[in-house]
Design goal:
This protein is α+β, with helices and mostly antiparallel strands. The chain folds into 2 domains: about 55 residues, Pemi-like Protein 1, Chain: D (Ribbon), CATH 2.10.260; about 30 residues. The protein is built from 4 helices and 2 strands, in the order αββααα. It has a two-stranded antiparallel sheet with strand order 1-2. Strand 1 and strand 2 form a beta hairpin.
Length: about 90
């Protein structure tokens, strides 16, 4: 448990243990969210990655991608289609 004091401008210094736990570095942004009646602070970059992962969940199976070679082949085909569309 850590405590931080709020200044007259509404600013706080995030304790080092919390910064480390969240993987925060200078210049990072934090996201405040309400969850079950509590306010939670998270590293906004980590949250964005997590949301992207959730959005793509199940897509590999849907596309029949089993390994890295399948992904490379899919990208190669996509790039070929884009190239052909621009040069026809």
């Amino acid at each position: 448990m850590e405590i931080a004091k709020v200044t007259s401008k509404g600013q706080i210094t995030i304790p080092i243990a919390i910064r480390r736990a969240l993987g925060l570095r200078e210049g990072d942004k934090v996201l405040f969210m309400e969850q079950n009646g509590h306010i939670v602070m998270v590293n906004s970059s980590v949250d964005a990655i997590r949301r992207a992962q959730d959005a793509f969940s199940g897509e590999a199976e849907r596309l029949g991608l089993k390994d890295e070679a399948d992904v490379v082949a899919l990208l190669r085909d996509f790039r070929r289609e884009r190239y052909d569309a621009r040069h026809d």
